[in-house]
Structure formats: structure tokens, C-alpha cells
Amino acid sequence: MDKILVLDFGSQTTQLICRRIRDMGVYAEISAGDAVIDTADPDLRGIILSGSPESVYTREGESPDKKIYASGIPLLGICYGLQRMNYDMGGKVEPLPEREYGAKTVSLVEGALDGVAEHNRERVSSFLAAFAGDGGGPESPSDGFTSGKSGGFTAWMSHGDTLTTLAPGFREAARSASGYTAAVVHETECWFGLQFHPEVTHCQKGGEILSAFVFGVCGCGTGWTMEKYARETGEGIAVKAGGNTVLLLISGGVDSTVAGALLLKSLPPENVHLMYMDTGLMRKGETDMVERSLLKLGARHLHIVHCEDEFLGALKGLSDPEAKRRAIGDLFITIQEREVARLHLSDDYFLAQGTLYTDLVESGRGVGKKAHLIKSHHNVGSPLVDAKRKAGRIIEPLERLYKDEVRRLGRLFGLDEDVVRRHPFPGPGLAVRILGEVTKEKCDILREADAIYIEELKKRRAPASREGRAAGEAGGVSLYDDIWQAFAVLLPVQSVGVAGDIRKYGWVLALRAVTSADGMTAGVYPFPAGDLLEISTLITNSVKEIGRVTYDISSKPPATIEWE
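Predicted structure:
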């Protein structure tokens, strides 16, 4: 089966590159940036060098296996990957006077094909056609890259360095509106480079450009499906677990529920124990919903642990987000070990989790060594989880998937649509949606307000189109299904208001709703004003402790989706 190898130098979107390619039906896998590459692998059709938070000219900047440059395998460098290729081949990379970040217009330069060798011309034309026209491939290349009149498109930049001298053989193919090199091609080698990130959804033509590399340049055939992933992952789980007991810490959200379904389909159900902890930090009605959905999956060993007092006690006096996450993570494992002892499970049990790649990469645990910590996750950063991981007794069947892929996998298993389409919920629960110290009173306030918000989103219809949204026309799906993730956040602020004729202070609530395809980038959901106003009024009328409602209009980046 044809495959593309992605070398991970620590970018927060490395796995997104891999996922985009898998969406095309082509198998892609990730290796560490400095991994030894089997360039003789007959299935290896192309190599992509990812971005990185580091600079190529510092000691921290990793280098790839130099064999790739002599292998004849097509190479695509993205951001740091482009700089790495240019630097390794004798070019120069230097810091920018001002970081180039966010949406930037990129246009092909005149004469981009000049000097390209005849044997390489068709593949370069195929690649650049995606910039200039509709990405139609080598049979119908646009002439935009020869005339310099492609009109440009919006790309997504995130870099503090730039190419100041191109290595011998490299030619500038595109330039950003800031005047910096945005893409290069090589005259004789099948090497390509992008200074922007085609993998993020904010990048126009990003999919076409990756597709041009995968199909037009590398000549890959399709052969990768979610069915194949489920089958191969299930077989791997069965081999790893053997006849041992597997305990899954399950939250009831999409990730852990799909992980549970995969375990139950891959292993004898009597070997699978599902443990759910009611921490007191859950959404309204969560425990009842969890019990119903897990029993429907065929679970034979479902253990519901009521431990609200313990979690609220552990959080008492804590305001720092990382301190709260660490306290929750450690207590999760402490209670799990205590409850396992009560179940009299054998010492050699495996611990399973619904960890996604976004959890790993945001915790600085990507495939490579250079990913930076964005936030700790209770199922990634705990020392006790690390101990299980080092012992090789962790099973994380979703660790290479993004949220939308998990939903597809859940539908493949026949899970209820209400479970599959449920919005993401953080492992630490309401503790990271209550800014500052967490108390039972604040949990109850937020739980009720959030339930009203979500229920209203499910009742209301989304506008049918961008134009319809502006006109307030109703579409075919609910607001809830039109939104990637929505939730309420209780702020550590009280503001003055009037209830009847009485002056009073009430808590401030922030509503959050974002659009996204993968969770790595997110835009603000453009609410119809009428819906937002009505939902705000319902909340303040129904939850007497809340005196003011705001709407968060920050995208990711620079913000994260969650507030803590």
C-alpha cells in the first residue's frame, strides 16, 4: 500500500498533515524528525518534513536522516521543513524583523518554471497548478505560474525565520504579501517547500496543494479507510492485551465511549472493565446518560464511582489552571487504583484511555521530541500514567486520531448519533470552565447555565448559508450541529445589576462557540444576534446567581478553545 511519511519536528499540526492525507484515502504515518529512514521501502512514495517551534540554526533544531536527500523520493518541506531543506543544502535562514503570523496572501511569482529541468517539469507543473487554478493536476495546468497572474490566495503563516538565500537549485515559486518567500521548487530534484501551513483549515487551497503533492508528484494510489484502521487497530489491541484484563477510564464523552466500543469489539467483553467516575465536575445528567450508553454497547463490567467530595476537596484553594489539572489527574489515578483493588483485578491489567493525538501534542508528547507544552492533560501528564506507559501497559487506541475521525469511527461501530455528535468535553470537566477556585456552588451554577445553553442550541435552526446567516434565515441543521464546540465558562467576577427594583451583584458567564474541523485551529461561530440575545436572557432569568452574560469572540490561535 502506497504511503507518505511525515517527519515530526515538533509542530502542533504535524498529525493534521497526516490526517489530511489519510482523508484522501492514502496511508500516512509519522516518525520522529531525526528517525533513521528506510528509503528502500517500496511503499514509500513521498516524505513531508513538518514545522517546528525551533530554528534550524540553533542547537535545538533537529536534522532529518541525510539519506532522504539522495533517495530520489519526493520531498515536501512545510515551514521549518522548508527552512531545514534549504539550510541543509547550503542556503541561508535568518530571523525575521517581525514574525509573520496568521492569514497572509500568497501569489505565484512570474517565471516560476524557468530553469526547471525537462525531466522534472511535469511534476513541478502539477504541484504549482494547485496554487494558480483549481488544482487540476498535470493534464490541465493553469498558466498562472508562468504569467504571475494567479490572483493569490489566503495562506496560514506561523514563523519567525525566513529564507534569505536560496540553496543552489532552489527557485522561488511564490511570495507572501509581506514580500517573503512562500514556496520554492527545485530545478532538478523532486523537492518542494512551503513557508505556510497547507494542513490547517484556514489555508485556502491547502487541500489542493497537499493533494497535488500526494497524487500529482508522488503518484500515490488510494487504499486507506477508517474500516481498515478499525480492523488493524482492533487486531493490535487483541495482540497487546492477550488474555489480560483491560480497564478503561471512561468519561462518557465521544472519545472514551468510542474507545470503549473498540475495546468491546476487539476483546472478549468479560475482559473489559469500564470505570466511570462521577467527580461532581460533570455536565447535567451526565452520569445517567453514561450508564445507558455503555450498557447498550454490551458492557458486562461497568463500575460507577461517586467521588464528588474527594475531587472538590482536592481542588479546594487551587486557582492556577495547571495546579487544578495536576490535582485532578493525580486523584483520578489514586481513586482508580483504590477501586481496582476493590475489584480484585490482577496486577498485570492494562490501563486504556480515550487519548487523542491533540491531547498528546498539546502536552508536548508528539512523536518527535520538540513539541512544546500547551496544557497538561489528566490522562497524559500524570506521573502514575507515565509509570504505566513506561511499563508498556497503556492502551490508547485513538492516539493517532482527531475528533472528527473519532466520530466517523463511532458511526462505523453503530453508536447512537446523540453520543457521536456530542461536543468535546475536557477530562477535568467543569474545573477548567470555572476560572479560579472550584466549589460545589459554582459547579451547580455553571452546570445549570450550560445545560440551558446547550438545550437551546439543539432547539434552534442554523442559517442555511453565510448569506442566510446574515439575513437570519433558518437552515436544515440545529445550531448545535453547526457548531464544533459550545460551552459556558463561569468567570471569577461579579458585576452589578438590577433584579426587580433591587441592586444586586451576580456572576459573569461567558458563552463560547467555535467552528473547527480538527480542534487544532478554531474560528468564532457567527451567531445570529437574535439567538444569542434570547439565550442570554433565558440564562439570566433562569439562573438567579448569574447577572451578566458575555460572548467570547477569540479564535484559536491565539486563544485556545477552552479557557484553562
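Summary: The chain has three domains: 3-217, 226-420, 433-551.
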